Amino acid sequence: MNLMIWKMKWSMTMQNNQQTGAVLPFIQETRSSWDKLKEEQRPIFIYGMGDGAIKIMTAMKSYGIPLAGIFASDEFVRGHSFEGYRVHKLSEVEEAVEDFVIVLAFAAGFQSLVDKIVALSQKHTLIVPDVPVTGGGLFTYEYCLEHAEELQQVYDLLADDASRRVYAGILNFKISGNIDYLTPATTPKAEIYKELIRPTTNEIFVDLGAYNGDSIRELLEFSRGKFNRIIAFEPDKKNFKKLTKFIGHTPAIDAYNCVAWCVDTELPFATKAGRQSAISSDGNMTQARSVDSILDGERATIIKMDVEGAEREAIWGASRTIARYSPRLMVSLYHRNEDIFELPLLIQRINPKYKLYIRHQLYIPAWETNLYATVE
After folding, report:
1. In Å, how far are 80, 203, 311 from 208, measured between CA atoms?
2. From the DSSP assignment, how many helices (H) and strands (E) are in the chain?
């Protein structure tokens, strides 16, 4: 969908809904992806494997939605099975079935893969159901109605039209599973840094969920390699090893192998592949620290939070710093269903001086949807 056309349609819909007094006028989708799938008469195939596919299969079963099978890209199929289903090649399904529905069950965060998915959606009916990275429940129109007051409050607090369009687009995508909402809602990372974060050469950067140092690299790219101090939290031991290797002996960077939390304690933490490690009841006991404790009254100028569903606790753990120093904030909004409204309202309550912005970076599904808070 052309960006200009999408903006015009969005504006017209807003005007019509305001005239009719509709609940949540920025939401157009009332049928969830699960409703669409339940009404389908064509065979439904899941594209992809892993944790996302299992969550989708569980939801489909609860809705009584029949699953015809599972497939993967031709180059990844080696005669294996998944959850009792033989994994087919896409070409095999296309040869055997004339018309079918694809349910995407994996994430795409780089352009060539996103382009491949978009091309597939033009060939077949494609639905990308929203399942939370962590936590329970499904994001449906009914869920939005249950939280209509909070969603409207966030919408009204947003500082610019772009944020309101992104917010509306992401909510409509999460309900419908229609990827047409994502492209016009996407902002390049460089644009976000230049327009909202605007790093200087004297930042005190707190990186919660530092992974292998990727966010530190981004900061240094836009601050010409200069900074005052960096404090990095990374609880996963393998990721922490990569982080410390990247940091090396660089002065003024302190790395902590700990969970970002609201208080100093120990928590069960499960190590998984890549970025998916998270607090879990079956994990190993791991040190947890709060930002306020680490800083001990000192200031921060930028705080980034991508902590796999523990953002709420991390915010509380940095609340004194946020209230006193108003650091620019970069907070993930996509791990739990409630993050999209709960986290902006929490930050605004802690520090009402903030202007709140929402941007979505290139990703299918609606991961990399983030809150940016500044006082400028």
Report:
1. 38, 15, 9
2. 15, 17
Judge contact between 307 and 206, C-beta under 8 A: no
Bin 297: left if φ > 0, else alpha if -120 < ψ < 50, else beta: left
Residue carrying structure tokens 């992809």:
48
Q: Which amino acid is at 166?
A: V
Interior CA angle at 163 toward 156 and 311, to 5°?
A: 85
Q: Tokens 């492209």 appear where? A: 183
Handedness of CA 219, 225, 230, 235 (dihedral sign): positive
- As a whole number of angstroms, the distance between CA 117 and CA 235 comes to 33
For 227, left (φ over 0), alpha (ψ -120 to 50), or beta?
beta
CA nearest neighbour of 203 among 190, 193, 188? 193
Q: How far apart are CA 229 and CA 245, in angstroms?
A: 18
Supply the DSSP string of 326-349, one letter for each residue.
Answer: --EEEEE--SSTTHHHHHHHHHHH
pLDDT band at 280 (very low <50, low <70, confident <90, very high): low
Residues 6+ apart with CB under 8 A from 90: 47, 71, 72, 73, 74
Q: Using omega within 30 degrees of 0 as the cis cutoff, is the peptide bond preceding 184 cis?
A: no
**Mean pLDDT of the region 146-160:** 98
- Tell me the C-alpha distance between 37 and 40, whole Å: 5
Rounded to two decimals, the pTM is 0.91
Give the phi and the psi of residue 114 in degrees, each rounded to 5.
-60, -45
Residue burial 69-91, b: 16+ Cβ < 10 Å; e: rest: bbbbeeeebeeeebeebebbebe
Residues 283-306 have a mean pLDDT of 95
User: Tens of pLDDT along 307-326?
Assistant: 999 999 999 999 999 999 99
CA distance 357 to 164: 8
Q: Say which residue the tokens 């990374």 belong to.
A: 234
d(CA 141, CA 143): 5
CA–CA separation, 224 and 13 (whole Å)? 43
Residue 137 Cα to chain centre, angstroms: 16
